[in-house]
Design goal:
The protein has a domain of 59 residues. The chain is α+β, with helices and mostly antiparallel strands. The protein has a four-stranded mixed beta sheet, with helices on one face. The protein is built from two helices and four strands. A hairpin with a 5-residue loop joins strand 2 and strand 3.
C-alpha cells in the first residue's frame, strides 16, 4: 500500500486574486449542492456571471457573480443575477 495522503488546510488570505476566486467558487458550490444545485464555472463572465447554478427541479437556473467584497451596483440589475460573497460565518454554520 502507498502512503496516506496528508492534507493541510490553507489560509485563504494568502491566495492571489485568481486563487481566491477559485477557492470561493468551490466553497459556494459545496453549499449550493446541499440545496440541490449543480454548478458550472464560466471562464469568460457570460452575461456578467462567473458561474451558473442549475437546480434539480430543471426549472431554476441562477446566474451568479462572485465578489470579493460586498457591493451592489446598478450594472448588476439587468439582466438579473445573483451576487455571491463568501462569508464563512454567514454561509457555513
Amino acid at each position: 500500500m502507498g502512503k496516506a495522503l496528508k492534507l493541510q488546510k490553507i489560509d485563504p488570505r494568502t491566495l492571489n486574486a485568481r486563487q481566491k476566486e477559485n477557492h470561493n467558487f468551490q466553497k459556494i458550490s459545496g453549499l449550493l449542492a446541499d440545496y440541490g444545485f449543480a454548478t458550472i464555472r464560466i471562464s469568460d463572465d457570460w452575461k456578467g456571471a462567473d458561474f451558473l447554478a442549475q437546480h434539480v427541479d430543471g426549472k431554476t437556473l441562477l446566474r451568479v457573480q462572485l465578489k470579493g467584497r460586498l457591493g451592489i451596483y446598478k450594472k448588476y440589475h439587468h439582466p438579473p443575477r445573483h451576487i455571491a460573497k463568501y462569508l464563512k460565518q454567514f454561509l457555513l454554520k
